[in-house]
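User: We ran a pulldown and think these components assemble together. Before we commit to crystallization trials, I'd like a predicted model of the whole complex to look at. Sequences follow.
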Amino acid sequence: MTTPVLRLSKITKTFGNIQANDDVSLDLYPGEIVALLGENGAGKTTLMSILFGHYLADEGEIDVRGERLAQGSPRAALSAGVGMVHQHFTLAGNMNVLDNIILGTEQLWRLGTRRKKARHKLIRLMDRFGLKVNPDARVRDLSVGEQQRAEILKVLYRDARILILDEPTAVLTPQEADHLFATLDQLVAEGLSIIFITHKMREVMAVSHRCVVLRQGRVVHETRTRNTSPEDLARHMVGQKVAHFTRQRLIPGNQVLSLRQISMAGKAGKPGLTQLNLTLRACEILGIAGVSGNGQSQLADIICGLTAPDQGEICIRSGTAPAGKPKAMIKAGLARVPDDRTGIGLIDEMTVMENMASEHYKAAPFSRNGLLNFRAMAEKTKALVAEFDVRCPDIHTTVRNLSGGNMQKLILARELSGNPSIILANQPSWGLDVGATAYVHDRLMEAAGKGAGIIVISEDLDELFLVADQIQVISQGRLSLPMAVDEVDREALGLIMAGHGPQASTQEDSHAH
Amino acid sequence: MRIEPRQAQSVARTVLALVLAVAAALGICSLLILWSGASPVQGWILMVKGALGSKFALSETLTRATPLIFTGLAAAVAFRARLWNIGGEGQFYIGACMAILLGTDTGLPPWAVIPYLFLAGALAGGLFLLIPTLLKTHMNVDEVVTTLLLNFVVLLFVNWLVFGPWKDPMAMGWPQSAPVVDAAALPILMAKTRLHLGFVLGVGAAVLIWLFMDRTVWGFEIRAVGANPKASRFAGMPVNATIIRTALVSGGLAAMAGVSELLGVKGYLTTDLSPGFGYTGIVVAMLAALHPLGVVVSALFVAMIYIGADAMSRGINISNYIADVTTAVSLLAVLAALFFTKYRIKR
Amino acid sequence: MALLQFLLETGFWVAMVRMATPLIFGTLGELICERAGVLNLGIEGIMAAGCMGGWMWVYLGGTLWGGVAFAAGIGVAFGLIHSLFTVFLGLSQHVSGLGLTMLGSSLSAFVFRMLLPKATTPPKIVPFAPLELPGLSQIPFIGEVFFSQTALTLLAVALVVTVAYVLFKTPLGLAFRMVGENPMAVEAQGLSVFGLRTAAVCAGSAMMAVGGAFLTLSAFDAYYIGMVNGRGWICIALVVFSSWKPYKALLGCLLFAAFDAIQMRVQQQAGMAIPYQLYLALPYIFSILALIIMSRKAAYPKALLIPFRKGER
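Assistant: Here's a predicted model for the assembly, 1173 residues in total across the polymer chains.
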């Protein structure tokens, strides 16, 4: 039994009332890949952030190669050979790759920078590990996959021997993810040890040697990967048998929304949209699959009316919708569940009641002649809070104090209560645990049953296979032809997501269905 | 050490924080008084006496508070929408100029003159603030510096007016404008004092603005846009229209301060009609945590400091700049104090 | 034309470089703060405090360079307060800055009156004398314009070169720029966001204060309340105009000072036809125009105005 290269002992951390980590111990041996699994909120990122020095643990110790690691200092962690590839990249978009990588590697009081030497070292690293990026490119001009490579190189440049990766495949196509795993194997062959955080079972089975499952801040299971299965791991992650969700087969009704030949120029490094065609019918759920950065936000903005396309038109039922007016789309019966809950979906300084009224405050019953009717707002809010199970102390609680799941329920309550005919859900289960995710899917299905047509944009293929009837892939700003979910397989989808395969639906094709 | 958001906010904690902040500010200024070689205790006693110690003193404090209520409301409304209107001083003078422009020869029946001048002044002030506001909404120009630089421009404009075309030939050489008609003068509320109707109008405005911000659709939009413009736009609120509305109200209020001061105190335009009411209004708004009714209280407090400082400076050997220093320190103290109502520091 | 003749006079260029000096200090100071992600609206008050402080040091018997150092120290003190509020506590950079401007302006007036309660004409001190550099000062035109300025002007220009070098060619400068673009990236590389931002704000504030001190120790020889007269605000506009680049800032300051010098001469000669107040208003109007022109595509440091809260991710 070799000695562990990293030992976390009895790590405990509390934030306010939430216990993020509870007496967690973990060993990492040289040359192994350990997958750290758990639902959202299980404490995985907190644990790794403590290891890397972003936080101080309340209790517990960390030993790297037998030596005590000073906590709370990323500099100490880096010196000890621990490097972290963060889920949200720690790169400055306006600076180039080389600058991002050499930041902090030289003494601050030096009179000059040894760029040439740094560049050589970087290029040697790139060759050695097969991670190619242009060192002089500005980070914001790079694709997401390239940015991740830069983030990994940043850590390797500092001679990290222990690598932490936080949800690395969240932003990659299946093929890019495979390439990443090959890189990880190569790193391990060179003697590095890796912990990688994920909630995707497929990856765990494919690449890890050992799995550690966290639930509610505690280690609940630890095993060699070859001795376990995805179902077993899922059960430990959630703590109970995972219910199988069956999708109801509904007969689609009339067309409720269509996009015809929508094009928009890209700007500031973001891709444009090219000739998008999309048709949505009542009682139907259309999934838009794709790795982030391929035009999803632009598509969502156009459907919501936040931006106007350069060309093409949007039709609601039979009439054309005015472009660029969010208010008009809301009036036409569009409900939106945005991907950014606190940035766009809710005003987090305001109360539950105020947020519930934020779209319809101008009309009766919430106001009359310009004066707000607080009693009506309170009544309606209380009813909706009960109906949608939004857990909050009372309707005057500031939204910032709600959990992610309850914020999403609040948004659903606001959006679905008006029986909308069109629903746009953008990454609806992002950051939610299994319970909240199931709730969201249930309500969306219910809305479809009531006649709504729903578009779900998601990076999570599993989610789309679960809830959608039809799938279109968005890749580089283009939409693929719609495919029935029962007739398509993941491999094929993966290829389309990476840009190969049947492209761009035309007007005739979408009518012919 | 770590900073952690608090779960609940209470009004009691906010008021306590404000009171502690003011106490801290007074404490710091006591050190300055000590450094000047005088006794702080004596100084503060003189200040309180000078501001509240007699009917006349009280009337002076209320008179001094009047323009501060208006400029405080102007800043409170604007800052609530995150529109950084630092141009209150300039808008004050725009209002005063309108009062002279239209008030020396109105042709209106006497009862209509005062409302007419207030309305005209408010409109002019609102439109004047609209210039930097439109630059912000349409051209992404930061409004802090533009509103501020415009203050200097307006002051020079007023300087030109009173030394030039509006110079009153009957004023024996003093640079001032001709006075407004008698009907425009705001009635005095207390005999043998300077306390005028403007104070009542100010308090009335505070109540109206409070109802506006708290109970109306427009007020709701202003608060939402100030809290999160992206989310407000997403919810379908007219963000630009809301900011423009805010500018019209804020600029209008600051201009009304000018109308009130001119019609109530002096009756004619001079370059020193405002010893910085526009800037002090910002402090007044912050001390009230941007609450319209709180603005009345903080305006009275700040007025007390200024009137009291005059008395203090006559009694002990200290310049009345102590008032400006005290308000500046209060602003910083309140900023820090309000932080502690939202966050807590943990080891 | 009379204007053209004026532009060819050495006197004009000498005045231009001299009048640009406080602007250079102020603009560089604000540029450093903003590059690190912190807006410092306290500049007007800090310049006032440095202005009075520098004068006070000399008036009470100190040396001129002692006065400069004292002013710089005052700047650092203001910078520390601003950093405490905005960097450490993450409070509103706007309000903190405005508070500091009010504090700096009022405190300098108060202390001045405390020292000289009855003065009607401000007492004079002996300011920096124009330099006499052997050989260099004798060069026709350039010798007078550049090498016969006072020491602080040369310091200002040297500072532009230094700041440009540090910002773009050293690891410290890279760290400063990064902390204004993405502080999370800085923390992940083991550096201290709070430390870097505080250092930038203090260094910048020290420069601003020295810019104020220039007015009493070099340009004029006495202090009067209200001397800074809006120069701080003009510097903020000039920072945007310079796209946060030191050499462009130098150019902007010189351009601005040129307009100011022209405006003063035209005022002297034009007589009463155009009111002199309009001339005095021109600097402020120009600053607004400069802001309008440059704001459309302004490449603001990405993390400007956004406080860095540890642990909020």
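The two ends of chain A are 62 Å apart (CA to CA). That may be worth checking against your pulldown data before setting up trials.

User: Thanks, that helps.
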